[in-house]
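Hi team,

As requested, here is the filled-out complex form for the zinc ion run. I kept the field names the same as last time so the parser does not choke. Let me know if anything looks off before we queue the next batch.

— J.
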Amino acid sequence: MLPIAELHLHLEGTLEPETIFAIAERNRVSLPYKDIDELRSRYAFTDLQSFLDLCYANVAVLLAAQDFSDMTTAYLDRARAAGVRHAEVFLNPQAHTARGVPLREVMEGVAGALSESLRTHGMSSGLIVAFLRDESEESAMATLEAVLTLDVPFIGIGLDSAEVGHPPSKFARVFERAQAEGLHRVAHAGEEGPPDYIWEALDVLAVNRIDHGNRCLEDDQLVRRLVTDQVPLTVCPLSNVSLKVVNELSSHPLAAMLERGLKVTVNSDDPAYFGGYLDDNFDALIEAGHLEPADLARLARNSIEASFADSRRKLQLEEELDTALAEQDGTAGEWGPSPAAGQL
Ligand SMILES: Nc1ncnc2[nH]cnc12
Ligand SMILES: [Zn+2]
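And here is what came back:
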């Protein structure tokens, strides 16, 4: 397995049905499904909103720091098994504080699990506080100010949830404030929303990465800009199939994006809902005939370069990658002719 960084992962989207039921029982929360099978039967999504409705209904089981810690640890354990050596994860505090869960419980539960996984797995990580874009700018700003007053580490801010009708420019002041605080900035754009939203994320929010970005391919000038500036795009193939952003994996534009020189990475988005974790995404792409061995190495390297890990950690990860590639091919830094399947 090649060492890789996962850069687009929503912790709330890692809650497996079994975990939802187990935490519900622990917290005496009643669920509107009689069993796990009934919950799973609702995983046939028609678009982004149909998924968001279910995902954010299920977080009702999360009440205490322990719940947030358990959710985070379960993801990190699974990601480690998938070859993830560095993870930058989204959390949406508004989805929890709006239900009356104290912000400190939420943040400390997650941050505690992240720092523990450095000890247990040698896996580095970073927490990105994401804002629900269908909520007001005032709510996002109040959330940012509140997390800044806590003594809990986070590396940046993000923008997610229902995209269409909520352009990046709505959050200009919030991103400006984050930039002044020295935080990294990312935004979902061009998943369901138009290429204009990607332009806005770049020019108004000054983001360091675009989450998804698929629809950039509709605008040649935008592709040129993204290629010239080597702006990373955190693409999520199985998510795109599940949410009908693409019809099927065989028509996914990942290979075309690589071909055009875009700095793409592969990520799992909401793995408990979309059919799998990072290794499952790669396996599915390989099966669909999308990836050559050289692409796998490129994607792993892109993920490290696009991460917000400090330069020392990046160097370590790049060395790990070079070693893994050399072991595969017998030639350091070269990509061998072996078939792609099973390489990650
Ligand atoms: N794919 C996605 N797009 C927007 N918001 C999200 N929140 C969780 N997953 C998301
Ligand atoms: Zn996402």
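Two things worth flagging: The chain has 16 helices and eight strands. Residues 4-328 form a domain with the TIM Barrel fold (CATH 3.20.20.140).

Thanks,
J.
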